[in-house]
Amino acid sequence: MTRKYLERCLDAQPDSPWGLRNRAMISLGYDLLARRSELVALQSEDIEYEPGGTLRAIIRRSKTDPFGMGRVAYSSVRSGKLISDWVNWRGADIEPLFCAIYKGRPINRRLSTSMVKLIIKEAVAAAGLAPEDVRNFSSQSLRVGAAQDLLRAGFDSAAIMRAGGWKSVSALSRYLEHAQQNVWV
């Protein structure tokens, strides 16, 4: 999900509690280059607002960090605003950053990883993509698209690896193999 699709998916979200949550989660997932397991594991205490409206997030554990050494990642101002809107609606007493919603009310229970996949698929469909294109999106699409956008923006492999928590260039290269970039411009 490159920036072009990201913006379409965010714009297609409904004006509802579910739309608030989904916009915030999709935007933050893209910015943090997060895996779906990392997104659902985020707790409210794992984010801090930075000067200028960005967020600093602590991703405490991941697939490549089984001992929980953690990594710090940062968001855009867009995600900072969307998270603020979501948390203001959700309330301060909910532990998971992204919680379930039942009958229009937040529930103090984190989302499942399969729910993240469903939210992304539904967002892409709501953005007007053809069903055959929707099938090509997965929960990894946020991570893949953000990495490709960072490469096109001129960031080197080390910076992208740090931002996304990759431990090897070979793992990152699988995410970047379909990135189209004209190096002659």
From TrEMBL:
GO terms, biological process: chromosome segregation; DNA integration; DNA recombination
Write down the superkingdom of origin.
Bacteria
Q: Which UniProt keywords apply?
A: Chromosome partition, DNA integration, DNA recombination
Q: Where is the Tyr recombinase domain?
A: 1-185
Q: What is the designated name of this protein?
A: Site-specific recombinase XerD
Which InterPro entries does the record associate with it?
DNA_brk_join_enz, Integrase-like_cat_sf, Integrase_catalytic, Tyrosine_recombinase_XerCD
Which residues are in coiled coils?
none
**A single Pfam family, by name?**
Phage_integrase
A Gene Ontology molecular function term for this protein is:
DNA binding
